[in-house]
Structure formats: structure tokens, C-alpha cells
Write a structure and sequence with these properties.
By secondary structure, the protein is an alpha+beta fold. The protein has helices at about 10-15, 70-85, 90-100, 100-115, 120-135, 145-160, 165-180, 210-220, 230-240, 245, 280-290, 315-320, 330-345, 350-355, 360-365, 370-380; strands at about 1-5, 25-30, 35-40, 45-50, 55-65, 255, 260-265, 270-275, 385, 395-400, 400-405. Strand 9 (about 385) and strand 10 form a beta hairpin.
Length: about 400
């Protein structure tokens, strides 16, 4: 049973449902579809009745004992605006109760946040777009399970993605849930990542150049159609810097007097000063002679644009394959730089400082001693000579002095 009134707080408080009716619907005379449903039990609720795509919908706005008529009327007007736009408010409300989908959360909340502070946010965007959304995008953040995460990782492993890439997907999902809980998008009980551990990834880098391989590589990069490639590769080898740090290097950051290169933006976000060897200075001198110090802002600029190369993979790939080093990555030049230092007897502390590692544990990955140095190391063990007689005489030789003792 329904009646029409100008709904006000006084009317709703004083209205009593007749005992012969289960409920009475008091419709507002001003806003179409807005009414208060008064039950025989005494409970009263504000509701909105509307149609979307020809289908009748009813949306509960709130308990009349908890919100005022004006508050309910304001909500009704807001939802009717959505209806005129073709949006179903009840569906939106249901989605809010269920929580955002993985796609909506990472695109609408996560990415805008990480873009505000994270330099490598584009890596996250790529991971979300290529891996997470295609497999998990339609799931609700509140309903995703460990099984769903396991399915994603198994799919990536089938596609031959490295374990490190799989772990980056796990780290991103874990951080996304941590942010969602912090922002109160959902509760900690919805987090499927709190027990999901990273895969065991023994990705210890073993690719580092011998002197012979380096000679072969440099010979081939010198033949590249990209005239700048040989200088880029040489500078990488002489400094141990990261590829993007070298590609973005500017003349203004080189101090020839102090033989130093200032890197304003490093992976850690800190400014770093790299000492330049004679070899590195020679590279800079050669580039200056060939292209002119004031021709471009960037040292290793693309001759056609004057800007840093966005990608040098094609020319690098051709050169490394010609040198018989198709497995070698550009980052392995940084690894080789560290290996050359360690094999020359430099301390890990010096290597850490030159590479700009904040954590010394990272530097230990580059401490690959050559077999020659390992053989030199074992030679410090004292040599023992045993005389072939009854009263065995043992001679121990260590350092220049030898000691003789008799074993009875």
C-alpha cells in the first residue's frame, strides 16, 4: 500500500503503520520514486525506486532512525543523476561493498600513487598491463585467493618468464594489498599475499668477460653501424655504470679537472660521483673530437636527434652475436667491471663504492675470482716434503724460511 506526502522528519517520526498492513510506502510528492517504507514492526527505511534499461530497481538509502529526511533526499537526487547518465546506482553500491576489481584498483588507485614518487613506475605499469590484468583483472581484490595467484605464477613459468620476473609480480601484488589495507579499501583478512612467499631464485650472475672475450667484443662493436656504440660500451666497461646512466650522461656533469663524473639520478635516488680512469677520459676526449663538445647536451647522443638513445639493443645484439657472445647482456659489462677489480686485488669495499651499492651484500654477487687468483690463494698453504726413510723426516716450507721436524 502506498500514499503520497511531502516527506519530512516530523511525518516519518509520528507515522504508525496500521496493524492490518505489513507495511506502508510513503512516497514523496516532489522527488519521483523517493519514499519511506514503514513496516508494521515499527522499522522505517528510506528507499529510491527507479528504472534502468527498462528494469525496475529499488535502492535502500538508509534507516530512518539513523539519517534525516534531508540526508535521504540528497542521496536520492544524487542517484537519480546517475540514472539519467545510464548508471545503475544499486550496481555501483554493490561493487563498492564487494570492493574494487584488481584492474580498477591497480589502474585507478595504485598507479597514480606510485607515479607520485617512484621513478620506475613504468616497470610496474608494464607488469600490471601485461601480466596481472590479463589473468586477474576481473577478480575482486576482496575475493582473490592464493590459488588465483598461483595460477598467475604458473602461467608465467609456462611462458618461460624468469623466476625474477615472477617474483616481481608477487612483490607488486603484495605491495598493492598493503596499500589497499592502509587506505581501508578492504580488510587484512582479504589479503591472499600475506602467506605467499617469493620463489627461490638463484639468479647469481655468471656472465663476465675474460680479456680475450672483451677484445673480441670491442672489435665487433667497432664495426657497428651505430658509430656511438663502441664509445658507449667502452665507457660502460671503464666506469661500471648502468646503461641508462651512461646514455643520459651530460657534458655538464663531467669535471675534467677532478677526473670525475657526477650522476644526478641513480637507482637509489642519490647523487653519485664516479672517478674517471684514463681509459674513460680517453673515451670522452675521442667523442669530443668526433662530435664536438657543444654539439649536444648529452655525451653519447643520437646523432640524428641530439637526444639520448632510447634503445641500443639492435646494434648491441648484432655485435655480441658476431663476437660469439650472444648470451652476454649489457648489464654484464657492469658485472665484468667489478670482476676485473676483484681479480686485480681490490677490496669489496672499493668495488661497492665504485658501483654505488648501498648494501654490501649486493656487491658480493660481483666477487667472482678468476681461477688464476684462486690457484694463487691456495699456494699460501705451507708445502710439506716427506723423506722416504724409516725415521720419517718432514720438511715444512712456508714463506722464505723452512722448518724441519722429526716424526718418531
Amino acid at each position: 500500500m502506498s500514499r503520497k506526502y511531502l516527506i519530512e522528519d516530523g511525518l516519518i517520526v509520528n507515522f504508525v503503520c496500521p496493524p492490518d498492513s505489513t507495511h506502508i510506502e510513503l512516497f514523496d510528492s516532489e522527488i519521483r520514486g523517493f519514499y519511506c517504507d514503514c513496516l508494521r514492526s515499527g522499522r522505517k527505511s528510506y528507499r529510491l525506486r527507479y528504472r534502468v534499461n527498462g528494469k525496475l530497481r529499488v535502492l535502500t538509502l538508509g534507516d530512518a532512525a539513523q539519517i534525516s529526511t534531508d540526508q535521504a533526499r540528497a542521496q536520492a537526487l544524487k542517484f537519480l543523476v546517475q540514472v539519467k547518465q545510464g548508471i545503475d546506482p544499486s550496481q555501483v553500491k554493490q561493487e563498492q561493498l564487494m570492493g574494487p576489481t584488481v584492474e580498477n584498483f591497480f589502474n585507478d588507485r595504485y598507479l597514480p600513487y606510485v607515479k607520485s614518487y617512484k621513478r620506475s613506475w613504468s616497470t610496474d605499469e608494464c607488469m600490471i598491463r601485461l601480466h596481472i590484468i590479463p589473468r586477474l583483472g576481473s577478480l575482486r581484490m576482496t575475493s582473490m585467493s592464493e590459488r588465483d595467484v598461483a595460477t598467475l605464477i604458473e602461467h608465467m613459468k609456462v611462458k618461460k618468464y624468469a623466476l625474477g620476473t615472477c617474483n616481481r609480480a608477487l612483490v607488486l601484488l603484495r605491495y598493492g594489498y598493503a596499500l589497499g589495507i592502509r587506505w581501508r579499501e578492504f580488510g587484512p583478512e582479504c589479503n591472499p599475499m600475506h602467506k605467499y612467499k617469493n620463489l627461490i631464485d638463484d639468479n647469481k650472475i655468471e656472465n663476465y668477460l675474460t680479456h680475450k672475450q672483451m677484445q673480441s667484443l670491442l672489435m665487433e662493436v667497432g664495426k657497428s653501424e651505430n658509430e656511438m656504440l663502441q664509445w658507449i660500451v667502452l665507457f660502460l666497461l671503464y666506469t661500471g655504470a648502468r646503461k641508462r646512466e651512461v646514455l643520459n650522461a651530460k657534458w655538464a656533469d663531467i669535471d675534467l679537472e677532478q677526473k670525475s663524473w657526477r650522476i644526478p639520478k641513480t637507482k637509489s635516488g642519490k647523487v653519485r660521483h664516479v672517478p674517471l680512469s684514463e681509459g674513460a677520459l680517453d673515451v670522452i676526449t675521442k667523442v669530443k673530437e668526433m662530435y664536438g663538445k657543444h654539439a649536444f647536451t648529452f655525451i653519447f647522443a643520437n646523432k640524428k636527434t641530439g637526444l639520448p638513445f632510447m634503445n641500443i639493443f639492435y646494434s648491441w645484439d648484432m655485435a655480441r652475436k658476431r663476437a660469439g657472445l650472444g648470451y652476454l647482456r649489457i648489464h654484464d659489462l657492469r658485472h665484468s667491471f667489478a670482476s676485473f677489480l676483484v681479480n686485480a686485488g681490490r677490496s669489496l669495499y672499493e668495488v661497492q663504492e665504485l658501483l654505488g651499492h648501498a648494501d654490501s651484500r649486493t656487491t658480493t654477487r660481483y666477487a667472482h675470482l678468476s681461477r688464476e687468483r684462486l690457484r694463487e690463494a691456495v699456494e699460501v698453504v705451507p708445502r710439506v716434503y716427506v723423506s722416504p726413510n724409516t725415521n720419517t723426516q718432514v720438511t715444512i716450507q712456508a714463506m722464505p724460511v723452512s722448518a724441519t721436524c722429526r716424526i718418531n
